[in-house]
Structure formats: structure tokens, C-alpha cells
């Protein structure tokens, strides 16, 4: 099914890709077919940032947070988070036994993957998809750190929000390997081989959380036909300087809003 193929493709590209390139990719069908497929707002989100139109993979699937879950009625994946990210050191039979499932294709999980049209994705692709969609997985970027300043012991991540949007040379952290971001990500069990993907995954997460937030505020306005452009808007955040991310449903890709700052030519691909 082309829709699943596009989701799989996006996950292989760290969860998002240049929208125009994807539409021009004949592997997924002609332009009108692809445009129709990616108009499904349950599975795709459009973003316009850093001078580029991006298509981001969405899912409603989440990881179950319960150590002991009632089971059949649960609509979330039953999977060890550490195993999802890579390898869980507590492999059953070795050391202490991990309390969580390491079976992505258990009956419960396989049913959910089919329900969400994700049965063709491998563990790595599902990991990317969940990291940017399940807001409980990656620690949030600290608002205080980006504004008035924060203190030691904060559980949010101290990284410059401007850096996620465009090149920045302020005094805040611009590297996920800086001590505080690195420690927070280690505590969240992000393995080293995912560290290089953090910037793009955080951008995708930020765009998707903004869409979710706006949808709640607008009373699910994004579900109503004829509201093209209604979701366009700026990312909340640093000092009201939002606007670097303009978001919208398919077909609603506009000029990026008033706050949009187009970077110099040649730098549009900074975030790819
Ligand atoms: Zn559960
Ligand atoms: Zn485990
Ligand atoms: Zn903080
Ligand atoms: Zn900065």
C-alpha cells in the first residue's frame, strides 16, 4: 500500500523528508496520487521551516507506560523502551530479567501495528516514528533555559531552541553532546547511535507537538474539511520569535507566516 510505503520511507529518513522531492519520486505513484495520500493528516504532517517544505510521519500509536498492564484492552505497544531504542542489557536469561516485552510481533503488538498500518516497519523505523510522536519518550526542551534561565537539576533538556530552527551562535548549548543534554538523553536511555539523529527528531517532535497543541486549542479544527491553512502558525517558544516553523495540513503549505526567516541560499538543507 503506497501510504505505508511512504511512512516507511519517511522513517528511513529520520521521520521526515523534503516534500517536493517525495512527491516527485515516482516510486510512490504520480503527483496527484501522492498528494492525495499525504493529505491524510492522521499519518502525515506538513511543515515549512528553514526555507523548506517538509513532510513528517505521524502516528497515534504510543508505547504503553505501565509496568503491569491489563493487556487486551490496551491500545499502546507493549515493548521494552530500551529494546525499542536498540538492545536491552537485561535480556531474559542474562543478568536480571527485563520486566518488559522484547517481542515487537507479539499478538498484542502485531494487532496494533496492523491497526495503525505500520506492520511493514522494522523496529528501527518504529523507533524513529515513536520518538517523534510519543511526547513521553524524549525529554522536552526547557522553556526556562531558553528564556529567563534555568538551574541545575532540571529534568528538561537544555538546548537552544533557535538552533533547532536555524543556525545560531548564542551562548546556549547547540550540541546534544553538551553535558546537560547528554545526561538527560542518557537518563532517557537514548543509545549513542541515536545521538546523531536527535536534532532532526527534536525538530519533528516540536512540529508535531505544536500541531497537537493547536488542534486541541482549535477544537480539532484540523479534522474539519475546508479549513486549509487553519493550522498554519508559528512554533511557540523563544521570546515570541516563533514563525520559523509554519505548519499545516497537506495543501496548506503557505509562505511560512510573518515570522518566517528564509536562510541564505545553500543553507536550506541544514536540517536534513
Ligand atoms: Zn498496556
Ligand atoms: Zn528490556
Ligand atoms: Zn531547565
Ligand atoms: Zn543559540
UniProtKB/TrEMBL annotation:
Task: Please indicate if the UniProt record lists Metal-binding as a keyword.
Answer: yes
In its keyword annotation, does this UniProt entry include Coiled coil? no
Q: Which GO terms describe its cellular component?
A: nucleus
What's the source species for this entry? Gadus morhua (Atlantic cod)
Q: This protein is called what?
A: PARP12-like CCCH zinc finger tandem domain-containing protein
Known InterPro entries for this protein?
A: ARTD-AVP, Zfn-CCCH_PARP12
GO MF terms, alphabetically ordered? NAD+ poly-ADP-ribosyltransferase activity; NAD+-protein mono-ADP-ribosyltransferase activity; zinc ion binding
Give start and end of each PARP12-like CCCH zinc finger tandem domain.
Answer: 62-109
Instruction: State the UniProt keywords alphabetically.
Output: Metal-binding, Phosphoprotein, Repeat, Zinc, Zinc-finger
